[in-house]
């Protein structure tokens, strides 16, 4: 076997703005010459939420009658027993969580017979998105009973899209590790549109057996749609890690929230954050109190404390409520031994220096760690003869010019040996998730009586540091090896629509030879393909500078109909003026905000050029894509949701007054 030598581009990284350099990957064969066919024969979609479902539908669609191609050969692996992702709440897992005692922050839940991965949503969830933006092209969303669809209605919609795709879905199939396989000259096929690729070795666990069965397969291309909600995000503040370990019934994350039941009666509840989840959870707690205890706060009742890093943002609607008290963000947690409870007492220190003692529940609505792909191993260098020998030893062999052949039941030990021997061949696509770390000395101290301090600890700035999946074309496909795609990496206000457009674009690229003969879709060089990444760095630098300067531009994506929104670099909480920390989404690499609609239009325009017949589908028609109208309608979702919340509260008020009157008459 002859091993190709490096094409001279070496393993050098790219000159990036200083802050991003830490996430730069080595780059192999940036500009493959000659470009050869990838022979996309078998595609894997990882994850069966909305993005995975619509990707599968779009990949499989037979377009030959319209002058296009037959569908691609694709299969979807989902680790739960049903498709639907966030929108699928299965009663048995809910029951189990209830039995374990809400909230259950053990994830996945291991029972003697199975592994369960509960959805991060809850039965009372009412969406924030208009049905128009939950519509996959050609498959209208049935009119919901109210203005915003419920969890149940959204799940029903997804099921109706997924039903005909059943034969291409494997549930209870957990994708655990992925390795990029090297391209070797023996694989060269016909001249094609994509850079060369040896495809992907995929390790999955079949969770339908007990214990799970390890399986290994080869795929030509992968689209990852595995959810951004896998890893909750917490600030790394002193005492949090110890509190998570020693007081697990008091420290929660929105990911584990299922019901208001464990919280609403408790005396001191702190909800951290004013994003979608934190606002909804806080509203559910005070709503329940209002229904049970009446409009007025009752004797001895304490307000729900809302710990804020920044002012209210209209994208995350909430109503003012006398049952709330806003407090500055939490900078430190201390535990004290407690006689009368199974868990220590919990005190929190705020950015103002104030200490709130005996907190019953501290609920973090601080979002998720986006873009954690440390389980995807990409090539770090060109392979050597001995690498190929080690792969073959492990059961991964070259099958003439057909490509890599992987024995499905690879010997785990020899694979482990091979991957150790080959360690330097691969590098993780991203760093692993970060969780608060426990300082042993501090955690021991934490159990001692609290020493209150008036000097606040450092800001939890770690929430704001940019992390990203590096070197992407159009934010969704590896610029180096486009057989690696991300169907759901961009965090969107309209994720259903975006996933539909992204997957149609991915298909276009993977078809490699567009039937219309209009040429290649991807730019021919690595640098051109990753142009959007560089543009994004500059946007983030500008946002950061604007935020530092306290400029209102930094929040230009928000409407300002809410009198509480005052874009500025301070936040006033209870009369204390504090430096504000911006909403973490503003500096998050994969949250494109105002740049998202232009990108959506670019995807749509590109595939319509090659597939004009798609223009007739509901969801893709020209009249639905007037940018000004579309963006205006999207933004109105938030002010409308606020009005909707107000209407619902008024109705509840009226209802309880009527009940009272009827009761007294
Ligand atoms: C509480 C909450 C409320 C929300 N409200 C709204 C709303 O009102 N409107 C809206 O549009 N969006 C809302 N969202 C956003 C929501 O994430 C998207 O609507 C949508 O579900 C994203 O789809 P997805 O397919 O990318 O991810 P998900 O829906 O998260 O689905 C991902 C799937 O991948 C599977 N998976 C993950 N890893 C693996 C693996 N290694 N192997 C196999 N399978 C795997 C998971 O089990 C899951 O089924 C909300 C999210 C949350 C958490």
UniProtKB/TrEMBL annotation:
Residues 1-33, 629-665 are annotated as: Disordered. GO terms for molecular function: oxidoreductase activity. SUPFAM superfamilies: FAD/NAD(P)-binding domain. Gene3D superfamilies: FAD/NAD(P)-binding domain. Residues 630-665 have a biased composition (Basic and acidic residues). The keyword Flavoprotein applies. The keyword Manganese does not apply. Residues 17-33 have a biased composition (Polar residues). Keywords: FAD, Flavoprotein, Oxidoreductase. It comes from the Eukaryota. This is FAD/NAD(P)-binding domain-containing protein. It comes from Pseudomicrostroma glucosiphilum. The lineage of its organism: Eukaryota, Fungi, Dikarya, Basidiomycota, Ustilaginomycotina.
